[in-house]
Design a protein that fits this description.
The complex is a heterodimer of chains A (313) and B (281). With 313 residues, chain A is an alpha/beta fold. Chain A folds into 2 domains: 219 residues, Rossmann fold (3-Layer(aba) Sandwich); 68 residues, Alpha-Beta Plaits (2-Layer Sandwich). Helix content of chain A is 34%, strand content 28%. In chain A, helix 3 crosses helix 4. Chain A is elongated and about 80 Å long. Chain B is an all-alpha fold and 281 residues long. Chain B has one domain. Helix content of chain B is 75%, strand content 0%. In chain B, helix 4 packs across helix 9 and helix 9 runs antiparallel to helix 13. The longest helix of chain B has 31 residues. Chain B starts with 21 loop residues before the first helix and ends with a helix. Classes of the chains: A alpha/beta (313), B mainly alpha (281). The interface between A and B is large, with 42 and 37 residues.
Chain lengths: 313, 281
């Protein structure tokens, strides 16, 4: 059974279609990164999953519970950390978490035990009696995460958990999320692509309300156009090298990028994704007797995938 | 649930106990809302101001009572333009922030993504605001009591019995409380409705204040226009007339029906508004 499965989810705000025909599954134990430019529909989709925004059409289920037919049961299985982490400023950290735990159905001794456990886990021991108003951004974020973790829900939906944090705090939150993966299924949205590459085992790219890709980061980067690209710098004739390289079967196109100071020619060899033409390229240049000073096979990052999928020019 | 014994510190030893009773959840929401009123300066400022203004009214009541006779302190206190002048502003003050602030801060999202229904949230807020409203009138209990003390002193000093019989004293006290509670039930619901319609406390306050003022003056239409065929309607909803009869000790079931049905209807509207705003956002 999928932890999350959406069926033809649509959301319209007036005439504007924020999300159209979104279908995806999240399996138990996965950490899924939800990527997309601002305004792509990430937050809207997440809000629909949590039951805060009703979908215009379609439906989704959380741990087998339909969000429209059994909204309360679906919500019992998820912990949600909204973007910008709204909290009650006039409450104290412990008081707030205890209140949230009770709302989630915990009672009696288990409230104290659970809140204590979560406070430990999120590194909030020193702040438990502080007013939420006085907390720094990093600690607010942790309180928001702690709230989502209360009651050990099977699914965590985190909307930009590292938004607005400094690099050290980002690292801490990232470590925490990575640790959480053993107990929870995580669906998180973010702009920081390196983060996704580090912690997610599945990526969903959404743009203009539509899903552009959903796969593992490795397979996404592997299938990219930029994947087989090799750049070369050598000193010698241009035409003959271009002709010889063009004869390699997997090569699709050779681009002359200009002559650098000292007579070095710079070429980009575009080949089919997943092939490596470095060896043959080097061999050809060596056979012609030209000096070769640089050969590099481009390793595409998730950033390249993201840019390629969501570029509008 | 996955069982992982490797990290005992971060694992719950036993499955988390959960309770899903509807009223238990309502109680949690209610207690938190009440804590907002009584645990922050906000509520105490309202109580203090209401008390100061009531004291001001009492001062004029003493002036009136030195001439007029026949009715109790509470009658002159509530049938006094000074009282109405601040009474209608109590409701927007109590309710303007309840749902509007929740929406502005974004905490409504947190509430509605917890296993909680809209009805529970609204009822929790309503009951808390209503309880707080009733708390405002608790110090008012001192007035009949102080009046009684004064009577005892008069009796002792001058040998004149100035106080009434016990049943009349009780009516003098119970009638005003009954009508204040009934009106509050409806007006608090109206305040909540105004608060549900906007994310700005100010707008919510303005809406509620305008409603209160127009409702007050609708009740006084007959004083301006005299009697006409539709006049009974205006008499029926006139809060000044109801207060006047209740504070004389004349309890009537009609205002009870009026205000309780209106309160229920308004609360149903609040639920529709909250849901509607969620659907169209």
């Amino acid at each position: 059974m999928s932890m999350v499965s959406t069926e033809h989810l649509y959301k319209a705000f007036g005439r504007f279609m924020a999300v159209r025909d979104v279908n995806f599954n999240v399996e138990k134990g996965e950490i899924v990164g939800f990527l997309g430019p601002n305004g792509a529909g990430k937050t809207t989709t997440m809000k629909m999953l949590t039951g805060y925004l009703p979908p215009t059409a379609g439906t989704a289920s959380i741990a087998g519970h339909d969000i429209l037919d059994e909204p309360l049961e679906a919500r019992r299985h998820l912990g949600y950390m909204p973007e910008n982490v709204p909290l009650y400023d006039e409450m104290r950290v412990y008081e707030y978490l205890a209140y949230r735990a009770k709302l989630k159905g915990l009672y009696g001794k288990s409230v104290r035990a659970e809140v204590g456990r979560i406070i430990d886990r999120c590194g909030l021991e020193t702040k438990r009696k502080n007013m939420i108003r006085t907390l720094s951004k990093g600690y607010r974020q942790r309180v928001g995460l702690a709230d989502a973790l209360l009651g050990t829900p099977e699914l965590l939906i985190l909307d930009e958990p590292t938004n607005g944090l400094d690099p050290n705090q980002i690292r801490q939150i990232r470590e925490l999320i990575r640790e959480l993966a053993s107990e929870h299924t995580v669906l998180l949205s973010t702009h920081i692509l390196s983060e996704v590459e580090m912690i997610c085992n599945k990526v969903i790219i959404i743009d203009n309300g539509e899903i552009k890709a959903a796969d593992t980061p490795a397979r996404l980067t592997g299938s990219l156009r930029a994947a087989g690209r090799v750049s070369v710098e050598y000193k010698g004739e241009l035409d003959v090298v271009m002709r010889e390289l063009g004869a390699i079967p997997s090569v699709k196109k050779i681009i002359y990028e200009g002559t650098l100071p000292g007579g070095w020619q710079r070429l980009i060899v575009r080949a089919e994704p997943g092939t490596d033409t470095r060896e043959r390229t080097a061999a050809i240049i060596a056979r012609l007797g030209y000096p070769l000073r640089h050969i590099y096979r481009h390793i595409p990052s998730l950033e390249d995938v993201f840019v390629e999928m969501t570029r509008h020019d | 649930m996955e069982q992982e014994e490797t990290i005992p510190k971060t694992q719950t030893s036993e499955p988390v106990r959960r309770r899903t009773s509807w009223f238990a959840t309502l109680r949690i929401l209610y207690l938190r809302e009440l804590k907002v009123y009584l645990g922050t300066p906000f509520g105490w400022v309202i109580i203090a101001c209401a008390m100061a203004l009531l004291g001001f009214c009492l001062q004029t009541v003493i002036q009136i009572m030195s001439k007029a006779t026949g009715e109790g302190v509470m009658y002159y206190l509530l049938n006094n333009i000074n009282f109405w002048f601040f009474f209608i502003f109590i409701f927007p003050l109590i309710t303007m922030r309840s749902l509007a602030e929740e929406e502005r801060q974004g905490t409504l999202e947190g509430l509605l993504t917890a296993p909680v229904t809209t009805t529970q949230i609204i009822l929790g807020k309503y009951l808390a605001a209503y309880t707080f409203y009733l708390i405002i009138w608790v110090p008012l209990l001192l007035y009949p009591w102080m009046g009684q003390l004064a009577n005892l002193y008069t009796e002792y000093r001058y040998g004149i019995t100035a106080s009434g019989e016990i049943p009349y004293l009780l009516a003098d006290w119970f009638g005003p409380y009954a009508i204040l509670s009934l009106m509050g039930a409806f007006f608090i619901a109206v305040g909540l409705l105004c608060s549900a319609m906007t994310r700005s406390q100010i707008i919510s306050g303005i809406l509620c204040t305008s409603f209160m003022i127009s409702f007050y003056f609708t009740g006084r239409v007959t004083e301006l226009w005299g009697e006409f065929p539709a006049a009974p309607v205006f008499h029926y909803i006139s809060c000044t007339e109801q207060v006047s009869s209740f504070s004389r000790g004349l309890l009537d079931t009609r205002p009870a029906v009026l205000y309780l049905t209106l309160a229920l209807f308004t609360l149903a509207l609040v639920k529709r508004v909250v849901d509607y705003r969620r659907w169209t956002r």
